[in-house]
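Worked problem 6 (solution included).
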Amino acid sequence: MLVATGILQLHAIFGKLRVFLGRPAVQFQLVVILGAIGLAWFASRKGWRLLDQRAGRGAIRRVRIAGKPLPRFLCALMRTLTFPLFALALLQITQRAFMLQGVTAGLFGKVAWIIWTMIALQTFVTVLSAIFEPQTIRVYHFRLFLPLAVIVITLKILGNLTDLHELANTVLAEVFNNPVTLGAFFVATVGLYFWTDAAHVFQDLAYQLAVRHTAVDPGGTMAALTLLRYILISMGVLFVLSQLQLGPTTLAAITGGLSVGVGFGLREILSNLISGILLLFEQSLHPGDVIEVDDEITVVEDVRMRATIVRTQNNDELVIPNQTFFTASFKTYTGTDKTVRVPIVFRTDCATSPHEVIRVLIQTALNHDQVLRDPPPSVFVLDYGDNVAQYQLNIWLDNPILNAEVASDVRLLVWDAFEANGIALPFPEMELHLPKHVTPEFRPIFTS
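Solution. The predicted structure is:
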């Protein structure tokens, strides 16, 4: 009964819309409004194209106020707002002309409100692009800001045709004897989408602000913001459940069904989800950490609810389930201290004093910019014999990713230093032992 009543209410609302759009006065206003908007779009686009052709693409940037050029975001804002402001001016002029002629022009004010909303949106996005990374703002502009503006405009239009409160209380279906209204369905779908995307925007923008303007640890900040994002999303899900009016009995039925699914096929997914939450809470692993996976050094890029994204030195992206970090041991280079020791082995002949070799190795290592002075480089004498002395140079770095690169640079520097100080590298020696009963016979290779 409630569902049938709701369908009748929706039918009545759409009937009002059809009647409204079927009026000749409304249709005439819509045609004039579309024409004015089209003319504004063509004129603004053509005007900027002619300006760019005659004065150059950066002509607007050469405009000066009090001897200073316009900021970049103001130049972008002028280009962006030219079309809506021109359209708004044309609509105002047309509305005045209609009113002087005694023609109905009430629709012009409604459309002007929509254009003002778009002007506010474009201004907001342009300012954000000047503060944060433009690529990030561009993505969220089409994923969040623009769809949200469309929803607001749509609700404004519907508010002029019907009572939004009455529309939201329209019953669409019944789930476990609980009525699901149009408002609850809207919140559970569109509202939850916008809330989830808004949580992503908050995480990205807060991270950029924290990293740019403070000295906080980027990895720890990302982990904390990721955890906060999941908390916000969980709060949104709980709010949706409250709007759907799902009682304890309904939740128990849904949970019982899910438990069967978890038992058969979702156990691994649930384990990874719990592992991801524990990783974020413990902060044992966060973005920016350098870890070793399958004997390969990688950098953690993102810790998600199900899996952790790492990137190798060959720029390969690996997706590792979170439970792997709880069921198997892994090596981290940036857990509590980011400094790492890099051992490099060298061999020289025994003709040079070990003290001289140690002095040259330490001095050469200190000439590299990436080698830390504290702790300082050190040299161990590993072994000597058979005309070979073996040394181990230990250098310290604060970036484990540079291990191979710095080790290669130090080897090249040591090669040059050995040549400059007369330290020779060992050559392999071989002794040939012949049986006593064998008499070597030498024969000339070339005969005349």
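Discussion: The chain has a mean pLDDT of 80.
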